[in-house]
Amino acid sequence: MLVEMTDDLQPYYGFPLLKRAVWTWEIPSYFFVGGTAGAAALIAAVARRSGGSDALVRDARWIAAAGAALSPPLLISDLGRPERFLNMLRVFKIQSPMSVGVWTLVAFSSAAGAAAFADLAHRTSGGKLPVRIVADASEVLSAATGLVLSTYTGVLLGATAIPVWSRNARVMPLHFGASSVGAAVSTLELLGHRTRALNRIGIGACLAETALALYLETREDEALTPLRDGTNGQLARAASVLSGPLPLALRILASRSPTARRVAALSTISGSLLTRVAWIQAGKAEKQP
Q1: Torsion of CA 169, 6, 216, 281, to 10 degrees
Q2: Would 198 be classed as within a structural domain?
Q3: Is residue 7 a part of any domain in this protein?
Q4: What is the pTM of this model?
């Protein structure tokens, strides 16, 4: 369940103060799907206003809409009962990352779906102005909430008492955001969009991921031990290579090769998903004194 945290910080009459994290596969999947969808909505809005092709904008909108449709069921599945999700919508608490995240997800899901279907209606109705206004307004809202959705999960983890998460509260939103952008770009490339602009955005995401991986690897902090040691350490390093140096080299050295771009895209998507898994596992495996 999303609200349960971790092991004990200090024992109190033989009982732990905080519970171990019990998140299952739905949560890293939700982090990945929601983040990719949010970044795709942002790319759609930027592409629309910078002269990108209609096909690129359309596909980015539908990636956002698909992710928006999948994210709530993943979160509800982890919570166990739909009413728990609905209860979170009873009150909006700006100081609560969970509350902000759930309301952002609802707003994003509505806007992303509206943008995609309004765009479809606009093209099939002969370009009627009211439909276009709805599509553009929904696109702006989905881009704004998508930006939050692609980064807030890092804030959510950082707000807990788990050292490997809380001591990296400033790093994880950037890490997850760059990873989300890379995954969204890669998904568009696998759909056949291989413009120079997308490749440049992909290079930027890979550079950010490489820099963050180096920072985390060289930083002297005992709290990072669960992210470095054992099987999870190997998983985290594999995720870093797949989302950083490997696709970066392919994008720079062989950007004109369709095969290289596909390999770079698949590598980035795999690394993006494994990044979430590694961070979640690090928090679940942590042992506090």
Answers
A1: -120
A2: yes
A3: no
A4: 0.86
Q: Is 43 inside a domain boundary? A: yes
The region of weakest confidence among 88-92, 138-142, 252-256, 259-263 is 88-92
CATH number, residue 40 = 1.20.1630.10
Instruction: List phi, psi (to 5°) of 15.
Output: -115, 145
Half-sphere exposure of 249 (CA within 13 A, CB side): 5
Whether 8 is in a domain gets the answer: no
Q: How many helices (H) and strands (E) would you count in the chain?
A: 12, 0
**Per residue in 184-238, pLDDT tens?**
999 999 999 999 999 999 999 999 999 999 999 999 889 899 999 999 999 999 9
Give me the residue label for tokens 């930006």. 147
Task: Please name the residues in contact with 244: beta carbons below 8 A apart, sequence gap of 6 or more.
Answer: 206, 209, 210, 212, 213, 271
Q: Which domain holds residue 261?
A: 26-285
Counting every residue written for the chain, the total comes to: 289
